[in-house]
C-alpha cells in the first residue's frame, strides 16, 4: 500500500480540524444547556424532574464521547507530527486512504481493527487470518 501524498495529508488534516471544531462546539452547547437546566432548579413536577435527570445523563454521555473524539484527534495529530500518521500501530502497514477519509483518526488498518474488536469482545481469533 502506498504512503499518503501531501495533498491527502492536507485534506485529512482539514477533516480533523473540522471535526475538532464540531466536537468543541457541541461540548460548549451541551454544557450550556446543562447549566441552564440546573439553574432552573428542582421541578415540583416529578415528570419534569425525571426528564431533566434523563437529559442530563444523556448530555453527560455526549460530552464523554466528544472528549474521547477530541483525544483521538489530538493523538492523530501527534502521529502526524511524528511522521507515523496513516501507519497501523499494530502491523506497521499503511492504512488505506479510503479508511482514513471515513475515519481520519484511525490508528489501525481495517484488518487489525477487526482483530482488535474481536479480541476486545472476547471472541476467539482464528489462526492464519
Describe the structure.
The chain has 129 residues and is an all-alpha fold. The chain has a single domain (6-120), classed as Four Helix Bundle (Hemerythrin (Met), subunit A). It has 4 helices and no strands. The protein has helices at 6-39, 46-82, 97-102, 110-120. Helix 1 (6-39) runs antiparallel to helix 2 (46-82). The longest helix has 37 residues, at 46-82. The chain is elongated, with a radius of gyration of 20 Å. The protein starts with 5 loop residues before the first helix and ends in a 9-residue tail after the last helix. The mean pLDDT is 86.
Short overview:
This protein is mainly alpha-helical and 129 residues long.
Average pLDDT works out at 86
Number of strands: 0
Shape call: elongated
> So, CATH architecture?
Up-down Bundle
- Helical stretch tally: 4
List low-confidence stretches: none
Return the structural class.
Answer: mainly alpha
Rg result:
20 Å
Biggest sheet details: none
The helix/strand order is HHHH
Note the gap between the termini.
Answer: 19 Å
Name of the CATH homologous superfamily: DksA, coiled-coil domain
Amount of beta strand:
under 5%
Kindly list the characteristics that best describe this protein.
single chain, 129 residues, mainly alpha, 4 helices
Amino acid at each position: 500500500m502506498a504512503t499518503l501524498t501531501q495533498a491527502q495529508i492536507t485534506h485529512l488534516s482539514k477533516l480533523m480540524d473540522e471535526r475538532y471544531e464540531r466536537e468543541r462546539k457541541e461540548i460548549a452547547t451541551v454544557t450550556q444547556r446543562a447549566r441552564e437546566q440546573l439553574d432552573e432548579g428542582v421541578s415540583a413536577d416529578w415528570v419534569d424532574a425525571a426528564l431533566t435527570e434523563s437529559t442530563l445523563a444523556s448530555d453527560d454521555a455526549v460530552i464523554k464521547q466528544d472528549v474521547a473524539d477530541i483525544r483521538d484527534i489530538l493523538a492523530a495529530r501527534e502521529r502526524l507530527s511524528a511522521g507515523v500518521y496513516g501507519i497501523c500501530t499494530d502491523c506497521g502497514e499503511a492504512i488505506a486512504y479510503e479508511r482514513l477519509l471515513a475515519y481520519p483518526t484511525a490508528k489501525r488498518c481495517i484488518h487489525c481493527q477487526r482483530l482488535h474488536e474481536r479480541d476486545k469482545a472476547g471472541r476467539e481469533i482464528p489462526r492464519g487470518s
